[in-house]
Amino acid sequence: MLTVPTDRCQAMNLGHQPVLLHEVLEFLAPRAGGRYLDCTFGGGGHSRAILAAAGDTQVVALDRDPAAAARGTLMDEAFTGRFALIGRNFDQLGEFDLGSFDGVIFDLGVSSYQFDDVSRGFSFREDAPADMRMDPRSGVPAAQWLETATTEMLVRAIRDFGEEKHWRRVVRALEAARGKDLLGRTGSLATLIAEAIPARDRRATKLHPATLSFQGLRIAVNDELGALERGLPAAFEQLHQGGVLCVISFHSLEDRMVKQRFRRWCGQPESADDAMPQQFRTRLAEPLTRRPVIPGQAEIAANPRSRSAKLRALRKL
Fold first, then answer.
1. Quick one: CA torsion of 164, 216, 61, 67, rounded to 10 degrees?
2. How far is the C-alpha of 110 from the C-alpha of 317, rounded, in Å?
3. Which of 32, 269, 272, 315 is the most buried (most CB within 10 A)?
4. Which tens digits make up the pLDDT trace of 6-20?
């Protein structure tokens, strides 16, 4: 097993704990000389573990966040000639040829680095511009999106993506706040949303009342579900026969999308409403997880952000 210099490990580990790492490595079973694709580099925890698991493993990683480049440079220095970071989002996989891979990993959602950088606007713990973009070079910040989004777009973000039960109140409050300098910063935005939630419900939970709405807005601003819909098939296409695909999701809509796509590839009904006769199904993969793998209590205690993680895996036939 390759040993990475301690100082570089600490630099790459700072603020980042890869979720379900042991389980991912069990499914991928990195082998000497194998090629692996990390579609969500983030803090680099999964990439680093794959590279260290066996000699001469190679990892190609993707990340649309330009801030990931510095962490990619550290990884390349630690594993010279075995690692490459491409500054693209995984939904663009079908646009360029990276060759084929023995394993692919998706770790969806916001990385610890993005969440902990107050200036990025993903959190309301401190006041900052309401940006929320994973790639600040493209798209529009959340503040601008909120000022111009249609009612339908707001409903989709707050009700469907955020799963906020008081979505009507929140949407009305957001629309009423336009042009009043209340949507431009995380502090005023979080206060606006919180005040739209009935007081009895604000008191009934430990979560900040704006948590679900912020989640929904982030998903909408970054088109996270659309990216997953495009990226999953492209990643599956780039797997070798016998290659393994692992996906970690943190949101019920993401997990549902992954589950249905996996069942389709495994020749199984995608839902209770799927009545297609079995002889018309095509079996392209076998499931490695009948149910999603979730973190144990020890991992949740060490990394509370892992509590909603769900891992699904399959092997391409």
1. -130
2. 31
3. 315
4. 334 433 444 467 899
Neighbours of 15 (CB within 10 A): 11
Q: What distance in Å separates the CA atoms of residue 162 and residue 148, rounded to the nearest whole number? A: 19
- What three-state secondary structure class fits 106? strand
pLDDT at 1 over 60: no
Q: How far is Cα 302 from Cα 80, in angstroms, rounded to an integer? A: 31
Domain 6-113+224-316 = CATH 3.40.50.150: yes
Q: Which residues contact 96 (CB under 8 A, 6 or more apart)?
A: 88
CA distance 28 to 30: 6
For 56-87, the pLDDT digits (tens) are 999 999 999 999 999 999 999 999 999 999 99
Q: Give residue for tokens 């990683």.
A: 61
Between 5-19, 83-97, 130-144, the lowest mean confidence (pLDDT) is in 5-19
Q: What is the pLDDT of residues 225-241, one digit of tens each?
A: 999 999 999 999 999 99
What does the H/E/C string look like for 164-208? CCCHHHHHHHHHHCCCCCCCCEHHHHHHHHHHHCCHHHHHCCCCC
Q: What is the pLDDT of residue 219?
A: 96
Domains 6-113+224-316 and 136-221 equal at CATH topology level: no
Q: From residue 148, how far is each of 90, 123, 297 by CA, in Å?
A: 27, 22, 43
Amino acid occupying residue 91: D
- Every domain of the chain and the residues it spans: 6-113+224-316, 136-221
**Averaged pLDDT for residues 211-235:** 95
Q: Is the per-residue pLDDT at 299 higher than 60?
A: yes
Fold exhibited by the domain 136-221: DNA polymerase; domain 1 (1.10.150)
Pair 244, 315: CB distance under 8 Å: yes
Type of residue numbered 232: L
pLDDT at 194: 95
Mean pLDDT across the stretch 261-269?
89
Residue 150 parent element (H or E) = none
Beta strands per DSSP E along 13-110: 35-38, 58-62, 83-86, 101-107
